[in-house]
Amino acid sequence: MSKAAQPLPAYSGDALRHNAQVINYARGSLAAIAGASAGILGLLGWQGFIYYAIASTLLSGTFYVFHAKLNPTKYFVSTASVWVDEVVSNAVSFVLFWTLFYGLVHIYD
CA-to-CA distance for 75 and 90, rounded, in angstroms? Predict the structure, then answer.
């Protein structure tokens, strides 16, 4: 059978939705924890955003290697779903926790 004649993979809508919810929950939790730790560490400016980018990349790598077992297209429609979904929208939560904890810890320094 030629590559063009192979049937398209079938995905379960419920399974895809569940997988997306798991990644969204993990990214939201990461944003809160990374934001709090960036604030406590006293990171300012680009340092904080680079810290979030590194933390998000590590989380995506963890999902890619351990949860998707190097085959994310088995669990997601595309590989990009593991790496970029909800990263930007959770950055707002990161900034919220970052500024909150920075203000709580370093306000009188």
Answer: 22
Which residues are within 8 A (CB) of 86 and not within 5 positions of it... i.e. 6 or more apart? 23, 24, 27, 28
Tokens of 61: 């790598």
Asked if 39 and 102 count as a contact pair (C-beta separation under 8 A), the reply is yes
Residue 109 CA to residue 105 CA, distance in Å, equals 8
Percentage of residues of the chain with pLDDT beyond 90: 55
Cβ proximity of 39 and 101 under 8 Å: yes
Residue partners of 44: CB distance under 8 A and separation at least 6: none
Q: What is the pTM of this model?
A: 0.83
